[in-house]
Design a protein that fits this description.
It contains 8 helices and 10 strands. With about 240 residues, it is α/β, with parallel strands linked by helices. The protein has one domain: Rossmann fold. The strands form 2 sheets. A 6-stranded mixed sheet has the order 6-7-8-3-9-10, sandwiched between helices. The chain has a 4-stranded antiparallel sheet with strand order 2-1-4-5, covered by helices on one side. A hairpin with a 2-residue loop joins strand 9 (about 215-220) and strand 10 (about 225-230). Helix 5 crosses helix 6 and helix 6 runs parallel beside helix 7 (about 180-195). The longest helix is centred in the last third of the chain and has 18 residues, at about 180-195.
């Protein structure tokens, strides 16, 4: 556990989905803590509960039972509006399908959260342009998603995720739709953001490349933690 404090905490979390007449137990009493500044991969076979765990951490869904805290705040007691504000202000999301807005430029996509927060135009432009340069997209600020490669679109998604200085970035299979070389570049980028800027990353993945970069591997099997191991960072 990172000595700088806990960002996300799950205690006894279960999630049950109803499929027809059958109850599907996605998570079964999950206990997990993510510390500030960690670089964690949640892995496991299909159906193990990886994406469900990430969605619950990101307040995109509510657990059937158990407690989830973000920076010590119990998500169970928050209203929909409070959860939406929490997602906007304290959580960054990187999705495997990028989820960029097609009619917006790279800069406009990356600054969208800052627009929602009411950050003045000049301030958000300056901040996002610096972030886009840091992720290797300088000169591409005005391109729309359909004018960019998959790797470039994912870099825009990463820039958007970190623009609001979130407590944690949750990345769901971020390398799934890019080739091996692009995946390595994206992972190098996220490793640098973690190391140099202290950005906390939690990945849901089945990609061995992501597992290789992670400094902590949490393996889920049948909705429970099967193993939780820390290792040395990638140089």
């Amino acid at each position: 556990m990172n000595e700088n404090g806990t960002i996300v905490e799950l205690e006894g979390v279960t999630k049950v989905y109803r499929q027809g007449t059958v109850d599907v137990h996605a998570l079964r009493g999950l206990d997990l803590r993510i510390g500030r500044g960690e670089f964690v991969a949640i892995c496991g076979p299909s159906g193990s509960g990886k994406t469900t765990a990430l969605n619950l951490m990101g307040a995109l869904d509510r657990p059937t039972s158990g407690t989830i805290r973000l920076e010590g705040r119990d998500l169970g007691g928050l209203s929909r509006r409070e959860l939406a504000r929490l997602r906007r202000d304290r959580i960054g999301f990187v999705f495997q399908a990028y989820n960029l807005i097609p009619v917006l430029s790279a800069l406009e996509n990356a600054e969208s959260v800052l627009v929602l927060k009411g950050v003045p135009s000049a301030e958000r432009h300056a901040k996002v342009q610096a972030i886009l340069a840091a992720v290797g997209l300088e000169g591409l600020e005005h391109r729309r998603p359909n004018q960019m490669s998959g790797g470039q679109q994912q870099r825009v998604a990463i820039a958007r995720a970190i623009a609001s200085d979130p407590a944690v970035v949750l990345a769901d299979e971020p390398t799934a739709n890019v080739d091996s070389e692009t995946a390595e570049r994206l992972l190098d980028l996220m490793t640098r953001l973690n190391r140099d800027q202290g950005v906390t990353f939690v990945f849901s993945t089945h990609d061995p490349r992501v597992m290789g970069y992670a400094r902590r591997l949490v393996t889920l099997v049948d909705g429970r933690v099967a193993s939780d191991a820390s290792k040395e960072a990638v140089a």
